[in-house]
Amino acid sequence: MNGQPTLAELARREVFALHEFFVAWFRTGVAAADFSQCEAALAPDFRMVSPDGMVNDRAAVLQRLRQARGSQPPDFAIAISGLAPLWQQGDAILLAYVEEQYRSGSTTRRRSTALFTAEPSAPRGVVWRHLQETWMPVAD
């Protein structure tokens, strides 16, 4: 092995880093988060299917993120679990993970699949191409 991270490792790091950004961006009273890192992580042709089935392009996702800055309470948190590669070919990889969001005593869960491609100029070496989220019941 040449010591370089694998595509799966780069994508894993990206999932965790972007969700850390979301927590900092959405929480009220948190110091400034670097929005340009978020923008650079989403490919120009990025698409997201939200848990309610709405399809949003990159511009719509970035606009909603900008508008949501500081919209969550100080206890807002995100936990990522079950992260696993589902498919990989060449410079593309599909990952699955579960995202739990906590705020004001309530929890929501979503199962996500995300397609990444290698992009050396991206903050962590990959860009998000497609994201599909599906609501899940909250575990007791």
First-to-last CA distance: 42 Å
CATH class: Alpha Beta
The major β-sheet equals:
6 strands, mixed
Helix/strand structural class: alpha+beta
Order of strands across the widest beta sheet?
A: 2-1-6-5-4-3
Instruction: Please mark out the parts with pLDDT under 50 across 5 or more consecutive residues, or reply none.
Output: none
Short description:
This protein is of the alpha+beta class. Helices cover 26% and strands 43% of the residues.
Plain-language structure description:
The chain is α+β, with helices and mostly antiparallel strands and 140 residues long. It is 26% helix and 43% strand. The chain has three helices and six strands. It has helices spanning 7-26, 35-41, 58-67; strands spanning 42-49, 55-57, 77-89, 92-103, 106-118, 126-136. Strands 2-1-6-5-4-3 form a six-stranded mixed beta sheet. The longest helix is centred in the N-terminal third of the chain and has 20 residues, at 7-26. The protein is globular and about 45 Å long. It starts with 6 loop residues before the first helix and ends with a strand. The model has no long low-confidence stretch (mean pLDDT 94).
